[in-house]
Amino acid sequence: MLDKTADLLPELTGGAGLTLAASRPAAFEALAASYEALLGPASSPHLSAKEKRLVATAVAHWHAEPLAAAFYTAEAEAAGAGIEEISAAREGRAEDPRLQALLAHAHMLTFAPIEGSPEKLATLRAAGVSEDGLIALSQLTAFLSHQLRAAFTLRLLGA
């Protein structure tokens, strides 16, 4: 699936990522490999493809990254999410208690990671998220923050 992710950074930067691909192929390949590891078909089975993409859509929206939000919205739709579910996720809401817990945790990690606590983790566990799912969610949220900041910086630099 790396063939699909090879064009991801340029897509998220409006083409600015092409310079990175040419001048720093190892960095470009690392971002693509991280995407593949966290969102690809062989990624953690402890979160569904739909859950991962709804979280990604929300995080991109929270970062005010319209290109990434559009990309991850299309990914969420392809994974079976409806437009109402996507709209709610962007606002950090979900009817499904498990998805609500995932979004709340991603929001906390995005905006106030210092607020992490055993009680917050207990909320995820109570919603049916396994330890492996919790780790996968935290890794995904961290990756998305990195990916979106990299895309923003590249656009800013006009790279």
What key attributes describe this structure?
159 residues, mainly alpha, AhpD-like, 10 helices, 74% helix, globular
Describe this structure in words.
By secondary structure, the protein is an all-alpha fold. The chain has a single domain (2-157), classed as AhpD-like, CATH 1.20.1290.10. Helices cover 74% and strands 0% of the residues. The chain has helices at 2-5, 8-12, 17-23, 25-39, 49-62, 66-78, 83-90, 97-111, 118-126, 131-157. Helix 8 (97-111) runs antiparallel to helix 9. The mean pLDDT is 90.
Record field, number of beta strands = 0
Low-pLDDT stretches are none
The helix tally amounts to 10
| Number of separate domains | 1
C-alpha-based Rg, rounded: 15 Å
Whole-number mean pLDDT = 90
Largest sheet: none
What characteristic shape results from the CA principal axes?
globular
* CATH topology (level 3) name: AhpD-like
CATH class (first level) name: Mainly Alpha
Order of helix and strand elements from N to C terminus: HHHHHHHHHH
| Helical content band | over 70%
Q: N-to-C terminal Cα separation, in Å? A: 25 Å
- What portion of residues belong to β-strands? under 5%
The fourth-level CATH homologous superfamily is AhpD-like
- Label the structural class: mainly alpha
- Name the CATH architecture: Up-down Bundle
